[in-house]
Every structure is written in C-alpha cells, then in structure tokens.
Design brief:
The structure is a homodimer. The first copy, chain A, is an alpha/beta fold. In chain A, the strands form seven sheets. The first copy, chain A, has an eight-stranded mixed beta sheet. An eight-stranded parallel beta barrel of chain A has the order 26-27-28-29-30-31-32-33, surrounded by seven helices. In chain A, helix 5 runs parallel beside helix 7 and helix 13 packs across helix 18. The longest helix of chain A has 25 residues.
Chain lengths: 874, 874
C-alpha cells in the first residue's frame, strides 16, 4: 500500500484520476480527471481517505507525516497559481471540501474562502481592487468556518446579516455596502469571541488544519452515520479532503456561480439544463437562499462563457458516458469547473438517459440496464393529477421532482413522522429543507418549499427518494409557531388538504383525484431488454381480475399469489363469511358455503380469463377466522340480529387469540374446517373447467399455506384430490392443476425434503418466514425495529430486504432439501421480498424459478433479475 | 420369515416362548413361557400378529392357509384336553383373547366361553352335572359375544340381568336360579335377533372365526388407535389372538377366579397381593362388578390352593426377575394360571421394587434404573393430606392409586374436559370407568368410583397416569342426570368441593390442605445410582430461594433458569414496576429503578445463598412490559391516582401488541430501555459480591433472552460489562461471572457461530423455539393442536416433547455451529423439554452439558439422563 496521503491536481501535474475515488473521494478523483482532460479546474490537492481512516483509528490524530505532505503540496499550489497562502500581498485562499467515495449530499462539511484574516483581507481588497468583494468573502468565511469548524449555529450569523439588511431596508446581500459588511464582520467576530471565549483564529495555517480535522469529523456526525446506515455504506470508508485554490463567483456582475446537468435530471430529455447566480458563491445556489437564473439566460448574458460551458459539458459526458452534474464558477468572465459527477436523476430520467445513450452508441444495453436503480423504477408510476379536473391553483414554483401528491399540510418533520405513524398522508411544507428533514421527507407524500431551486436540498433529496416536490414557491410564507401559512392571499392551517404537482410546479387547493401515469417508450424498451437477459421469471401478486390484467400489462408471467381472503373481505360478502364462521353447526355452515361457492368461482373465472395461458397460484384461506368478524359491540349486535341468533359477543370473544400470527390459521383452518377449503377448491376447479371449455388456457396451482408438517399437506392434498376428481368428472374436463405449499415456517424449511416428496411446488412465504424466523411481529416491531436499523444493529429492515445471513440459510437449506428429493421442483417467492432488488439478487443466486411481487413492482423485479444475471457475468 | 401363523402352548408341546412377544403378543408369549416352566396353564394356541398385519393389509381377509393351521391346532388341543369343540358330548369351550406386544389395558376385545349352543350347553350341564353353571356360562357367552363380535351395547344385556335380579329381589348374580338364567338367556337371544335380524350364531366353528376376526378388528377401534398415538406405539404391530381351552371359576363355591401381584403394586412392598372372587369368571373381577376378597382370605378358604399359588408366583418372579401381575382360575379346587405379565405399578412402587431386587441380587443397578419410567417419577411427590388437620370422612373405598387430590366434583368426562380447559381442578366421580373415560381421567386431579377393586379399570389406569384414585366406595350413589350424588347420607352437587386420599381410600368433605410427601430411601438410592451414570448435568428452573433449596434437595446441580420477571409480578412490587414502565421520562424511571434495585438484590442474595457453590443462570427481563400493567379500567384508574397522573388508559392501550410473543420483549427491552437491564445486572452483581464477602461461593451466569442477531448480544454485553466493572470496583470483589444468551429464535440458531464468538454460554429456550420454529402460539394452539395429536398428524404435543425431526435439526445445527467456533462452549436447555425424558435422550445424544427443569422434575431428569446413557451402551 502506498504511503502517500496527498495527491495534487493542477493541469498536467495531476497525480490522481477518476478511478481513484476510493482514495480521493468522488470529488477529488473527478477534479483530477477533469484536470487531465484539460478542463479549466482551479488547482489544488486532495488528502486521501486513508488519512481519515487513520484519524478515527488513532484517537483523532492525523497521520504523523501528513502535514509535511500537505505543506509541500501547498507550496506547489502557491507556485502554480502565483499566490501565497497567508500572505497579505497576493493571498491564496482555498476551499476545504469533503468528498467520500459515494455521494452523501449535504451530509458532510465544506469551508470556502479559507486563509483570510485582517491582513490577507486587506491584500485581497488591494489586489482585486474590490473592497466590497473582499469583505463579502470575509464575512462568508467567518460564518462558514465558525459554523463548520467551531460549531456555532449558522442561523445566528444569518440573523445578524438579516438584521443588518432590514436595518438598511434592503432585500439581497449584494446591496449591502462596504460599511454594512464591516459592521457585519465586527458583529460576527464578537459573536465568535463570546461563544468560544477566544478570538476568531487568525493564523491561516491553523485555519487549514482545523478545517481539515473538521471535515474528517464531519464523516461521523450523527446524520452522516444515519445516512450511511440507510444506504448500507460502510463506516470504514472515510472521507477525503480536497484543498483547492478559490475562484470567486462573488467578484461582481462579471462573476457568477452555477450548477448544470448535461441532460434533464427530471425527464432525461437531452438538453443542457442548469441554474446560475450572478455575484454569488456556490453555497448560495445549493442552499436555495436566492432563486437562481436558468442556464438559458447565461447564453444571453455571457454568450462566450456559455459556449465554453457547452464544450465542457459535451466533453465530460462523452468522457464519462453518463449524464453529469457539474458545478462551475465564473470569475471575471473566466470559466472554472469545480466539480463533476454522475448526476442524480429520477427513475424516468435514468431510464430515458440510459436508453438514449444506447441509441447514441455511448453505452451498450447491459450497461444501460445497470444504470437504473431497480428499486426506484416504480417511481415512474407516480400518479399525476387527473387532467380532466378543474383545479384551483394556489401558487406556482419549480417542478423539482415529478409526480403529484395529495395530503394534509404539516410544517415540521416531527409532525410528519407523528402523523405518518397514524397512516395519515401528509405534505411537508417548509421554507427550505435541510438534512435534518430527511426522515420527515421520507414519510411525506410530497414536499413544498418556499425557497430554493431545482438543485436545492429539497429538490435533490426528493428526486432521490422519488417523492413529488415543488420548490421555490415564492408567494408562500410559513408561520411555524402558529402552524399556518399564507399562500398568496389564502391562509392554510396545519392539516388542511393540499395537492402538489412536482412535474408542473403547481400547488393546488384541497384534495384532488390522482391518476397513474403512462409508460414511456424508453421504459418499455428497457424492460424488454431486461426481460431477455433475466433468468428468474416474474409473477405478480394479484387478487382481482383488474390487478391480474395490470400485472400482465407490466410483463408478469403468471400470478404467484392470489389471496382468496381478500375476496372474503369484500363488503358485499362479509356477511356470508361471518355467517359461515359463526355457524352453529356443520349443516348451517354447509348451506352458507354453498352460497359462497358461486361468488368465489366468479372471482377465479375472471382471473383465469385475465391470465389466459399463464399459471395462477391460488392460496387457500390463510388468516385466522376472527379477522373476518366484527369488533364493535354495535356491529356484533347488528350481525346477531341479521343472523337471527342471540348474543354473539361471547362466541366472537372466544375466537380471539393472544398471538393470531401463530394461531389457528393457514392450513390449520383447512384441517379443522375442511369444508371451507373444499368450497374454495371446488370454486377454483369449476372456474378452471368452465374457462377451459371456452378455450381459455388455464393453469391453476393450488397452494396450501402455513404447513408445518408434511402430514398437514398430505391431509389437505388428499381432500383437494377428492374434490378435484368429482369436479373434473362432473365438468367433463381433464384440467391439469398443481398442488403445492408455502414454505413459510422454519419447520417447513427444515423438513422441506419430506414436503417436497408430496408437493408439486414450493412458494417461499418470506414475510411469515421473517416473522417466525426472527421472532418479529410485523405489526408490533415498529417500536424497536426502526431503532435497530438506525443504530446499525440490523443492516436493513428484514421485512423490506430478506435477512440473507440468517433466514437466507433456511431458504437455501429448503431449496437444497427440496431439490435433493425432487430435482427440478418448481420454486418461487411470494411476499414483499419478491419485489426487492437486493433479495432478488439472492433468489437469482439460489436459482429459483420465479419471484412474485405487486403488479407495480413487476418492472422493478424484471430489471433487478436482469441486473442479477449481469452481475454474475465474468 | 417363517410362514407359520399358529403356535401351540400345551405343556411340553409348546412352540412359543417369552421372547416371541412381537409375534405372539405379551399374553401368548407368556402363556407359552409358563407352559414351558411347568406351570399349570390350560392348553391352547396363539395366532401370530402377522396374521393380523396381513388381515389389515388385505382388505380384512385372513391369510389363505391360516384357517387350516387353526383347525390343525384345534384338533391337537381337543386331544390334549380330551374334549371336543362343538360336540354335545364333552364340549370344549375356548376363550378367544387379544394380545399385542405391549399392554393396551382394556383397549381390545376378548370372548370367553366360546363354543356354546343349545347342544353343547346341554352336554356341558350333563358332563359337569351342574346345570346352573352351564347356564351361567351360556348367558355370559351370549352377552360377551354379542357385545364384542356383533357390536350390541353390553349394557343392554346387563340391563336385562339387572331387571331379572330386581324382579326376583336378589342382589348378586350367583343367587339367580336355573329358571331365572333360562329366562335371561331367552331374553338375550331375543335381543340379538331383534338387533341383528338374525339368530344368535349356533355353529361353534363360525363363532370361532367371527371371534378371531373381531379381535383383529379391535386392533383398529378408535380408542385403540388413540391410545397407541398417546403412547407412541406403531399401528403396524397388530394383535395376536390366543385361543385357549376354558377353565371355569364359576363352577360353584369350589371355583373362583382372581388376579394377583407378586409385590404390592401401589407401594412396592414385598408381599403377595391380590383379589379373588368365588364362583365368578375373570371379567367379574377386572370390570369391578362385584367387590372381591383379598388374597389373604384365600389362605383361609383354600389353604392348599393358596400354597400352590405362592409357589407359582415365586417361580414366576424369579424367572422373569420382575414383579408379575397374574390371572388365575380355580376350577373345582384346581389352580390354573391364565396370564402373567410385568405388573403395572406406581412410580413409588416401581422404585422400591427395582431397588429391592438389586438388594435381592435379582437384577443389577443398570437394569433397575431402566425399570422405572422416568416420566412418572414425579408421581412420588404427589401430595398427601396434611395429617395435622381434622377432616370429615364421607366415605371409604380402596386406596387404588396413591396420593391425595382436591377439587370440584364432576360426574362425566366431558364435564371434566370442559372445566379443565378453564383451569378448574376437578375430581371425576363415576360409578365405574371405562376406556371412554381416559381423556376425562387424564385432566382430573383424582378419580372416585363407586364400584371396582384394586384391579378395576379406574384403578389400573389411574396408577398408570399417576392420578390419585379411590375405587369401590360402596356407599356412593350417583345420579348422572341430576348431576348429584349421595355419599352415605350426604348429597353432593356437581362442582361441590371434595378431597380424596388414594393411599388410604378415604373420601373427605370439602377442600383440604395438601402437603408434599417425603422421599423414601429407595428413591434416594435410585437417584444416586442414576446420578453416577448420567453424563448430562441437571439444573433446575427456580425463581425464589425456596425453590432453589427444594431443587438442591432433589439433586439439582445449579439453577439453569431464574426468571427475574416473576419477582416483578410480586404483589408488593408490582406498583413500583408499573410506575417504572409508565414513567413519563427517564428521570422518573431512574428514580423508580433505584427503589427496585435493593428488592431485586435481596432476591438474588437469597438464591445465591441457597445455591452456595453451584452456578445460577439468571435471565434478564423477558416478557413484554405491558404484561405487568393493569387491565381493568378500575385498576388503571387506581394506578393513575396512586401515580398522581391523569388518565393512563391510552398509554397502556398504546403498549398492547397484536402478537406479544413476537413483540417488544426479551433483549429488545434491554436495548430500548437499557436502564432496566442495568438495574438487574447491578442487583445480581451486588448480591454476588456481598455474598462472596460472606464466603458464599457464587457463580452468576447472566443470560440475555430472545437474541435474534449477535449485535443485540454485543450491545447488551457491553453495558453489562460496564456495570460490572463499576460494581466490582465499588464492592472490591473480583467476582467471576459469565454472560451468555438464550438460543430461542430460529435466526439465533442459524447464526449460532457468530453468537458463540461473543457468548460464554448458550441456553436453548426450546419453548420459544417451538413457538417460532413451528409457528405455534402456546396460548392459542389448544384449538387445533389436540386434534393434530389425536389424529396422528403430530406424534406428540411439541410443547411436551421436543420436535426432534424438525426443530431438532435446528438445535443440532446451533450446537455444531457454536462448537465450531468455540469448542467446549457451555450449552444447556431450559424450558419444559428439559424435564421430558424423550427430549433428554435427544439432548444427551447431542452431548449438551445440562438440562434444566422444574424442581420436582429434577429426579426425573436425573433418571432419564442415566437411562439415555444406558441405552447408548452396546
């Protein structure tokens, strides 16, 4: 391993390159790469992540020789830019920026304009002949350094600034006079002295060292740790620190700073897209403090610069073969690139960009498939506002993240979390968002902000999360204390209904009907490429003909789970179901079952028709019977009246269970009340035969749930066969069907060999397997499971992504045991994990036959299954 | 395989022997053995169980050549006794008796006196010059054959007999005149003709064939099937059929029939013990129809016969080296032995007999240990009535099965089952019991019968079950319809409290305080022999110093499970516990925990003292916190008042869970509320240190429950070590302690290697492992689990005996994984299975270090562990 910690980037004297992101962080590696490409990058150097790793392993001490290396590079830097760090003559200012191997937006810290003190301030003013600029830079430096390095709340500096502005009756920072700025700087310094009981540090070298250590420390702030856990990133990677000579976008009206994307990050359309701000520094754009200009304006304002920028973006996209997100600064009409990276994008945009790039010959299909995060693919189905409706527009902002959302207004993330727990749909309405809002955003249906552009925190994070977002709604004013807001002339209180359209940027009054969006051609092409590569078949979980048709449209190759109980819950049928359950004897029960038979038969008829030619796995009744019974005294009494019996309360109470999840359910019901299962089997097979007679190709797979012992399966199988032989004879159809079982209890997995001898197929019910294998009730684990994941005790929520280390063993064991006695036995997954890309990768490795997931997840699963195959390729 | 189906026993012409019980059944094999020993056995022959197996495998057809073999043997039999089957001259009558390889008392059928019709009846009367005897025999035959072979309810014949007796004003059968008997026989035949629409079969050969087939069929009656399932016997064994020449105990006052034990089956004392009845046949004694005489009376009545019987019993016991249960008949002052078998006995008696036989040199210690069914050993601790009490005796019967019991009267098994489900303690009071009562008896605390002796159904079954029983309480008259009984002059209704003493035979008014019995010297010796042989250590589950002392007395080598929550439930502490749970913030909680600390410390101090020198495994808090909270509105309000807070209802409600078994419990509590665990650890270690300073040898083992991921264990372990270092420093004691975990979730077993790296020991919590591994809630499975076991779907209740086929794999996996990374890691079992001999055998094979069970099960576990070792020996 190299002992080098510091790598320069300065035109030809550049030591790093793009593939060194593990050492140099994404930012450092790409700065080096750009320098090598001959792009105008302010020179600087990057301290390797290895130094950060050392720092945390050695009680926060820097590696012994690091500082010598830094000083050496600082000298070279001084030479290359012709300025001197800490010198009042022609002072070199630097930025000190964090940069990990993966993007952690807004998580870690950066200090700009470092190297200023009263001496160098004077030098800067003299050299640039621009005192205002020097003072503006100094006040920025003091507040940023104080916040990041000294830990003083940044809003306190903003408060001083705002007060100064209001005292002077001006609106924007650039209107502050030299005198105002001096007054502000004085107040800033007083604040620092009061808070730290020390003067603001004057020695630039000390500033640098403090800033480097502060960036290292920012790797382990709570929010960074939480973020990494959420994303599954290692805490051992560490951050690099890039020290770069400053260029200044705040040098007056010939200077600017901006952010641009090589293609549209929201739609993927191939057009240059971005924003910039005259006389500003980078953080002004990102933090959304002023609303910036569109990049198109730059073409008019500074046509030469714009032309240069276009050349750069084309060069970068061609070089990286991916859509780039760039930061640039214009200092006195000269263009500098400060950063480039693969741009964040919506799923729809990712799909369009990848497909377009295949057409453009930039990448191949396999690369294109790897470009789209499978788990975000269903973002594409985000709803839009029904265009037929007349809506009342309350305000307009930027369409920062596509899709529409409707819900109740909340003004804080805490409130959003609180209400989300109660299953309320909320819209988070904020002046602007910060990393502290991530949890609140993640539970909100959508986000509206008063400030900030397309690259503001709210916009970036919302796109990453696939949440609709409207940013920069200027007419919005929030009163957090009083829990209300003014939107133009209209006052809205907390919990008032509101709707937003993140595609158009509109904010709409009240609750509005949303409709699903249509699929694009790019999407369809990408899914079809994936479909040719993936080995796993993808089925859908669907309980109605409508869902079945939807799933089929999305490419489902069958139904992996049709839950018959959802049919029971139907409002019109529930009375019959209840009557059946509470029947005082078998005779009454048989009568009611006779009435339920044609209803269930109709359900299956519709599903078989929808799935003509494809297999349909139907699970016999699974939930405990008491789930179907009424709970309130009123409902119970009304049921008793309808059933013409006395009180039912006691009977219903006697059926309740301490732990229904482990109670009288699944095939246990089939064994104690075989008539219910027999009715269901009859309905399935009668429907199958009748459809078959109409030339529909029917492949029913009857699935027995919650088997713990092969004997249960044998008993149920036996009576299924009895009913079948009767029905098939009566209908005169030689219908082929399968009888299989769910593997959803640890014991079933452990004895899968015995069960495989009897069963035609296995379907792993990984939801229940997670509940029993981990001893976790899905209903009750909310109290501690979130804490477990947040604390990193568990890598992820095991209900979202299969616990491969633990339960994975059990699934693998069952697969091996099953195949051991019946090679080629058909095996699949139903349950949430069937739509989770990480789990799909695991199931692909186990060589299962299919996964089944909700209809909207089918494209995700197809893509994930293709990605799993591509990952396996050498 | 031999093609022979029939084996004769007739003095020297005997083909079978004792070790052929698999073919000949216990009865047939022992009759052959007795014949070989020169004991006077009426000759006959036995049809092998193979014929029965063939019968059921071939649609109930007899093997083709069987009947030829039978006829051949019948001819030899005729020769050897000088009588002819079906001949009116000197007719041979036979008994046709079932006999499986294992005893199935009362389960299968027998027909006596077969071969009678009007012709042979006349011949019998002439030959014996005793018309009364011939008629008495004939009426017995008709009713028995009609019941067993023709399936007519036996009580209908009894009813005719009783009516005849009451018409004639007589009490016992023997007082019936010849004329009465003739009238009875006529009525019997009319009944049969009416019921079967055929005349009673007259052809003796046809009678024989029908009887043989009926005995075969009796192998598969529902009650026999249930019984075999209960006992774990194979349904494929089949029954043998023994056809034996009749001898008659009903030939007048010089004839008798009886049952005798070579030692006392209730106490094990070495004295000849039995009962007989003059002028009766075997079933009169067994069915408990008349109360018989004690065998001592025989010494006075027929001293020569008595002497002969004593010689026989000594010969048999010496030969079999075990206590024998014999049936004999005296026909005209001649003694015949009809059966011998190892006698059923109480656990206390089994222990005494086995130990005595070692002292007598009959068997060795290993044989003695195998003689006592380990799972019955705790019968010995059956309570007795406190001798200091003055009790009111309501009646007296025979002390048929030792131990005292107290409970509410029920008059039917259905009622017993019903109330037992509600956890009521019931005493089953019956005129007599039959095999249909087995379930009722098994849930009753004790059994009282009006009729029947020491060998009646009630007595035999009660002893086998270890239930106290008083039989033959003559002053008891039951009115089943009105649900009351007269006991002497006192009328008792259903649910009235009553007490019985199965040792003295007394029935006592009301509910009476019971005390535990003392241990005998034989018991102590046997347990000490077992202790030297067994490899597994035996610990006890004990939550209090009292239980700990008791366990230690019984030989426990430590405490394997001390449940700290039981301390929390204490009436005096529950308020503090509730206050702690409902604390509005950490500060309040900390204060309450400070108050709980000295209380828990005191608990542990007592336990450590009791277990001086032995390890004590203490489990940190396990159940969900809401289990400690009040449920009724009244209690909740009163708690709120005491706590001086507003309403608590909502908070308590919010803590309730859908599936608490899979909820916020175990170490999940320790992680979300570490202060509770820290308090417990502090209490354990402070108690340990303080006891250590008093020279008590303390070995605390702190156990973390419900670990699903090694990270949970790491977190808890870390803060345990923190608390420990603080406590040990403060107390100035270098106390050694261990930190281990329960393996009670499938995931923990699957990742036992990871956990073993961190843990000092494993304790398998097989209760929860059964719940999660099988997806069975112990609280809710009552509805279907019994049906599962009854139907043979499961071999046994998995909560009673570990599911070796399924969960056993998981336990074995965990053991191997644990040892793989930490050879010799200490491993044990706590939970019900730790006291179950079948499971102990499994744990012994896995080479675990210990099992832990309730204090009263400790001797059982010691014995079972020794038996497991002996079974392994070559």
């Amino acid at each position: 391993m190299s002992k080098q910690f510091v790598y320069a980037f300065a035109g030809e004297k550049t030591h790093g390159k793009a593939d060194m992101r593990n050492d140099l962080g994404g930012k450092g590696a790409n700065l080096a790469e750009m320098a090598l490409l001959g792009i105008n990058v302010p020179p600087g150097f990057t301290i390797s992540t290895k130094a950060c790793v050392y720092f945390f392993k050695n009680k926060k001490k820097l590696p012994p020789k690091l500082w010598d290396e830094v000083l050496e590079h600082l000298q070279s830097l001084e030479k290359s830019v012709g300025k001197k760090f800490g010198c009042s003559d022609n002072p070199l200012l630097v930025s000190v920026r964090s940069g990990a191997r993966v993007s952690m937006p807004g998580m870690m810290d950066t200090v700009l304009n470092l190297g200023l003190n009263e001496d160098t301030l004077r030098g800067l003013a003299q050299k640039t002949e621009n005192e205002w600029f020097a003072l503006d830079t100094y006040r920025r430096f003091i507040s940023m350094f104080s916040n990041v390095v000294l830990g003083i709340d940044g809003t306190r500096f903003e408060h001083i600034l705002e007060k100064e502005k209001s005292r002077r009756g001006i609106k924007v920072d650039t209107e502050l006079s030299v005198r105002d700025l001096k007054s502000v700087i004085k107040k800033f310094k007083t604040l620092v002295a009061r808070e730290t009981r020390k003067n603001f540090p004057d020695d630039p070298m000390k500033q640098l060292r403090m800033a480097v250590e502060a960036v290292f420390n920012s790797w382990n702030t709570e929010r960074a740790v939480v973020y990494r856990k959420m994303k599954g990133y290692s805490h051992d990677w560490g951050t690099a620190v890039t020290v770069q000579s400053m260029v200044f976008g705040n040098m007056g009206t010939t200077s600017a700073t901006g952010v641009a994307f090589t293609r549209n990050p929201a739609t993927g359309e191939k057009n240059f897209f971005g924003e910039y701000m005259i006389n500003a520094q980078g953080e002004d754009v990102v933090a959304g403090i002023r609303t910036p200009n569109s990049i198109d304006q730059l073409e008019k304002d500074m046509p030469e610069i714009y032309k240069g920028l276009v050349q750069v973006y084309k060069k970068l996209e061609n070089h990286y073969k991916d859509m780039q997100d760039m930061e640039f600064t214009i200092e006195n009409e000269k263009l500098y690139l400060l950063q480039t990276r693969a741009g964040k994008r919506t799923a729809a945009s990712a799909v369009k960009i990848a497909v377009d790039m295949v057409d453009e010959g930039l990448i191949n299909k396999r690369e294109a498939l790897m470009r789209v995060p499978a788990d975000q693919l269903d973002q594409i189905f985000h709803p839009t506002i029904d265009p037929k409706l007349k809506t009342k527009i309350l305000g307009e902002g930027l369409g920062a993240s596509p899709g529409a959302a409707t819900g109740k207004i909340v003004f804080s993330s805490e409130r959003a979390l609180e209400l989300a727990k109660k299953k309320e749909k909320v819209i988070l309405v904020r002046t602007e968002t910060s990393p502290e809002d991530i949890h609140g955003m993640s539970v909100a249906e959508g986000i509206i902000t008063a400030k900030g552009g397309m690259t503001s925190h709210a916009a970036v994070v919302a796109r990453a999360m696939g949440k609709p977002c409207v940013s920069g709604v200027e007419e919005l004013a929030i009163n957090g204390k009083r829990k209300n807001c003014l939107l133009g002339a209209i006052k809205l209180k907390e919990l008032a209904p509101i709707t937003l359209d993140g595609t158009t940027g509109q904010v709409i009054e009240g609750k509005v009907n949303l409709i699903k969006s249509h699929l694009t051609a790019s999407f369809t092409r990408m899914v079809s490429w994936a479909g040719k590569i993936r080995r796993l078949k993808i089925r859908a979980n669907a309980d109605t003909p409508q869902e079945a048709l939807l799933a089929r449209d999305f490419g489902a190759q069958g139904i992996g789970l049709c839950r018959t109980e959802h049919m029971f819950f139907d409002e019109k049928r529930i009375f019959l179901v209840r009557k059946m359950i509470l029947a005082k004897n078998d005779k009454v029960r048989t009568e009611v079952l006779k009435k339920l038979l044609p209803i269930q038969r109709k359900d299956f008829t519709g599903i078989f028709k929808a799935m003509d030619g494809l297999p349909v796995t139907i699970r016999l009744l699974d939930p405990p019977l008491h789930e179907f019974l009424p709970r309130s005294t009123k409902e119970i009494n009304s049921l008793a009246r309808e059933m013409k019996v006395g009180a039912l309360g006691k009977k219903i109470e006697s059926m309740s269970e301490m732990n229904p999840m482990l109670g009288h359910r699944g095939c246990r019901l089939g064994i104690t009340f075989p008539d219910i299962y027999k009715m269901q089997v009859r309905a399935i097979l009668e429907a199958g035969c009748r459809m078959a007679k109409k030339d529909v190709k029917v492949y029913p797979e009857i699935m027995v749930p919650l088997v713990l012992h092969v004997n249960e399966f044998k008993i149920v199988r036996e009576f299924i066969l009895e009913v079948a032989s009767e029905v098939l004879k009566k209908e005169g159809v030689d219908l082929k069907f399968k009888i299989g079982t769910m593997i959803e209890l640890p014991r079933a997995a452990l004895t899968a060999d015995e069960i495989a001898r009897e069963a035609d197929f296995f379907s792993f019910g990984t939801n229940d397997l997670t509940q029993t294998g981990l001893g976790l009730s899905r209903d009750d684990s909310g109290n501690f499971l979130r804490q477990y994941v947040d604390q990193g005790l568990l890598n992820h929520d095991p209900f979202v992504s299969l616990d491969q280390d633990g339960l994975g063993q059990l699934v693998q064991l069952a697969v091996e045991k099953g195949r051991g006695v019946k090679p080629g036995i058909h095996m699949g997954i139903c349950g949430e994990h069937g739509g989770d890309p990480v789990s799909i990768d695991f199931f692909n490795r186990l060589n299962l036959d299919y996964v089944s997931c909700s209809p909207y997840r089918v494209p995700t699963a197809i893509l994930a299954a293709a990605q799993a195959v591509i990952k396996e390729e050498p």
